[in-house]
Amino acid sequence: MMISTLTYYLSEHPSIINFRWSHAQSWGSTWSFLFSSIALYLTLALLLHFLLSLFLRRNRSVSLGPIPAVHSLSMSVISATIFAGILLSSASEIRETRWFFRRTKTTPFQWLLCFPLGTRPSGRVFFWSYIFYLSRFVHMLRTFFTILRRRRIVFFQLFYNSILTFTSFLWLEFSQSFQVLAILFTTLVCSVVYGYRFWTGIGLPSACFPLVVNCQMVLMGCNLVCHVGVLLLHFMKNGGCNGIRAWVFNSVLNGAILLLFLKFYVKMISDKRKNKFAKLATKEL
């Protein structure tokens, strides 16, 4: 009974089935909104950092109480809901379009990577893609928590949040291929990462390894493999994949994020090794 109820509200509800991405009906669906919201996000983050530098001493942070933990719990629940919703919606879409797969000799996995030409941003899958796009604005709040608590601004965080918001808009605007798997991977990792942040935020013990960084590394690795799959399918299929131009632009942005993250990851590993060697040298002395 509970499973059927969840299935109905996550994939069979009329508002989900009849969803249509429209500049007139969908909130935040215009290019002007996208650019102005990202610009506002960057401006507010830089302004907050500047004001704190003026009025507070450098080593003094702002106490936020349970707000970051509540935000982490909310993001974990939202991400898990989107994951379940798009998973069930994809299963329903595949079940209802078996005739199309047989006629075009396409497998469900190929459909997940490569939408056929003429795909429109409507229906179950694009409803959850829209919810994922809106969740990016809630995700941005963590930047301000970082500035207030740690008194520093992380430019990679600003760049990553801006790019992910921009690419999730492109998925809807151009019915871009690959977005189903991208949302599945991202929301699964986010539900784990934010659940872990909530866990540590309420004072429970942390993991003995950098869980957040490793999860992000796995996510980027999965995205890279899937991007290669989309490229292969585009050239193998007659007509190619839908939204391929947006996908190319998306790939360039993801490549930039991957390079920046790898630079950060290598630096983190090298710093750890230096600290380890320094501790050993101190003990020997």
TrEMBL record:
One GO biological process term: sphingolipid biosynthetic process
Keyword terms: Fatty acid biosynthesis, Fatty acid metabolism, Lipid biosynthesis, Lipid metabolism, Membrane, Transferase, Transmembrane, Transmembrane helix
Membrane topology: Multi-pass membrane protein
InterPro entries reported in the protein's UniProt record: ELO_fam (IPR002076)
GO cellular component, one term: endoplasmic reticulum membrane
Spans traversing the lipid bilayer: 31-56, 68-89, 153-172, 178-199, 211-235, 247-266
A Pfam family that the UniProt record links to this protein: ELO
Main location group: membrane
Compartments where found: Membrane
One GO MF term: fatty acid elongase activity
PANTHER family: ELONGATION OF FATTY ACIDS PROTEIN 3-LIKE, FATTY ACID ACYL TRANSFERASE-RELATED
Name recorded for this polypeptide: Elongation of fatty acids protein 3-like
Originating organism: Citrus sinensis
